[in-house]
């Protein structure tokens, strides 16, 4: 049965819709075609404009002095939104990461971490990333020919990379894995810690506790890692307060994790589903950088970010009023027929590939260079040893409106 535009709009605020790729893309294609700037009034969320065309997403991100990240950088259930506000009024800390900020704070705060993520710094980190990629392909080999690739391999590797960059001990990696999944798989029954906003809030508070201890330790004994750079950073000669320091760790530990693991799992799934593309890539490994870019477009693990207008703005034939929020649908922009030739074809040689999976403009993903190296290193290791691979069961997607991808990818394989 075909969808109406109203139903398609509501799908954007329905975690379950993201667990069904076909249904989601049917809805997004309809919106791009018939209502690219569409007012949505979902049941459990505040109303917003759904922005589904590539050009409109870029226009909004380019106008970052009008479309602000504060106070609502992402879609949150109205009940959670209210709970967070209530806790803050009672004096609990509120997360204030780069994605919650606008200029001038955003520019100054982003600069603190920026050097650690430049391609030059990333090249220095590359040997460690390769070692971790090799360890995880070894782990795949040790699993003996069948596994759930998401839970047993992909979920661990990017977290190891990011926690190594931060400088945390490997003994803490398990705890961080659980916390980041609880935080980002927030809408999915299999991932979340509890049902209530209080239980979700408890995840946030656990994060705060861990990172506050880390800041104190790095201030007492600075070391040569990103955690020390954050703990000892100054703005106008003053150290960051506890909240801003903790928020910095949180954005890096969380943003760098499920995004990249979802890309690797979804990329592998796409190669299994498109054996011709897998053969092409094996025959010509120089295609790998383009293949990585295509995996990132194909998966688009970040489903949305929001902006709120600080004055009336005319977008196409619609006026967005001051105070209204827009939801930038990256999966939609990345299948926009006006920009991509045959957008629903997975093409390891796609060039050009002007996808928006890392966003655009001043908030463009800080970890993009790192993510690209991680994905490439993993597939270089894997493809050099892979003999056969096939699905061993039905893949399943995380039900979330924010960051997600596959939560299960059962595979059968043979490695050299
Ligand atoms: C921001 C996607 C990996 C750190 C973002 C944004 C997107 C995104 C869509 C928002 C951009 C915007 O608002 O225009 C992705 C994808 C990844 C990935 C698809 C993997 C394939 C990483 C990694 C890190 C990271 C590995 C590093 C630890 C950040 C940070 C921001 C950000 C710190 C906030 C930037 C700001 O607001 O200035 N990312 N990301 N991301 N990402 Fe990533």
TrEMBL record:
Example GO molecular function: heme binding
The record ties this protein, via SUPFAM superfamilies, to: Cytochrome P450 (SSF48264)
What is the top-level taxon of the source organism? Bacteria
| Gene Ontology terms describing biological process | cholesterol catabolic process
Which InterPro entries does this chain map to?
Answer: Cyt_P450, Cyt_P450_B, Cyt_P450_CS, Cyt_P450_sf
For this UniProt record, the keywords arranged alphabetically read as follows: Heme, Iron, Metal-binding, Monooxygenase, Oxidoreductase
Signal peptide feature range: none
Name of one Pfam family that matches: p450
Give the record's family classification: Belongs to the cytochrome P450 family.
Q: What is this protein called?
A: Cytochrome P450
